[in-house]
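Appendix B.2, paired examples.
Example (i):
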Amino acid sequence: MARKSGKTGAPKTPRARTGNRGAGATKGPKPAAAPAAAERIASALEAIAAAMSAATKTDNGVALTQADAFVWHPEGRLVPVPRVSRVDLGLLKGIDRMRDILIENTERFAKGLPANNALLWGARGMGKSSLVKAAHASVNAQAGGRLKLIEIHREDIESLPGLMEQLRSSDFRFIVFCDDLSFDGNDASYKSLKAVLEGGIEGRPDNVILYATSNRRHLLARDMIENERSTAINPGEAVEEKVSLSDRFGLWLGFHRCSQDEYLAMVRGYCAHFGIRLDDAELEREALEWATTRGSRSGRVAWQFTQELAGRLGVHLTK
């Protein structure tokens, strides 16, 4: 009886357990495999998202998709500009040649083709900075938003290498814009600009181009150049170093004072665009009188007269 109970009890129990384990072995991995696959998919998606985020964010975490334009701050921040103050390209009169050259240069750059840094210099109020902003808007519309405009203030030029470092690895293309660029006194920050334009080991990133406006062709005050000449051991070399800054802009666009006909064309263009109605003879008389009181004719003076006229006639200006 002891032998019989050993035969019936001992072998059966292990078999039943082994069978249960076998059944569990075939069914168990299925629910475990699904979470593993889901985890792998989630990890892959996170890696893709991280790569995309790295391509569209700067070092300070600003997403470059937030806006088409930014302002650079020297502590390393890019601040998005939701709405750029700009004039429509079609409203810029009397600068057709400069407009066409800058647009063509910007289009080549946006397509990844070779293009030059540009210096827009000359008379005040003739639309230099307006042209840069309008050209960016026009070309960026064709480029699908891949062309960004970054403004750097004159006093922050020394931080320009840091900005270049942030932009170098981005998939976007950038116009770095400095308005009213010039150097006075003992200011040595121009050396940072020279290094970025055509110097240094790394050089200017392929996805960055520099556009600057200035009232001076050589960016430096005459007394600054004369001071260098008088104090240097070799005056010729000192002056050559200062003047060479402008030479590093491959594209020079000169803006000169407009004629009376060009000034009136600007005024008429603004009035037509914003729906300001006034007899043409009266418009011409008032526009010329306004320019006389200002002592100059320019696009800026034409715009100021348009604002005065619109306010007087109760017309809202929306750009």
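Example (ii):
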Amino acid sequence: MSSAIRRCGLVRLALMVVAPLALAGCTAGTGASLVAGTADPQPGDITRMSFASDTIHLVPPTGFCIDPRMTGHRAEGGFAIVVPCSSLRPGPSGRNRALITVAVGPAGSADEALTSADLLKNAPGARLLTERNDMMLPLVKLNMPDHRARGASPVHWRGAFVLNDQLVALALYAPGGSRNLGGRGARLLNELTAKTLEASVTADLPPSPDAPAQ
């Protein structure tokens, strides 16, 4: 598959962060609890973060925030964990839970034409359940019991896209039975991609001049 994923191990990098998180056992205030109930962001919540010398501006989907305790920045990229904003505050756990990993690293020449088949090749031992090529990024839904996100279903979504010479690898995990393992999970990754593309492309544009007075 992509030379960048092979060289940098982006998915493995993100899973190193996920591994200590027990999806079923975390509680708000003590870690990324994966509680959904996608409440609106509150003051202090992080809904945008830059990587790779400000060439990638990560923006989560609606109702999700970046966990500041679960991010890392490197010269060539970095990683972040995206969770429902409500999971970053005290409160009861909800049924609909999810966690999105994001890993950023230099793209190779072959990455410009990423396909769902490439994503599958980077998940040895996984069984392909569904592939989506109708969104802004190729997506696969895999059954992979050893993915290391403790407490999560072996079923999860993966995707990747190239932006500003960077490869952005995504994965979405949720407990068994969650609707985030179905079409909603694919739409969440697609929304994150769309918002990140827009924010990154427009970040360096000059402000629009004021419209002339009528």
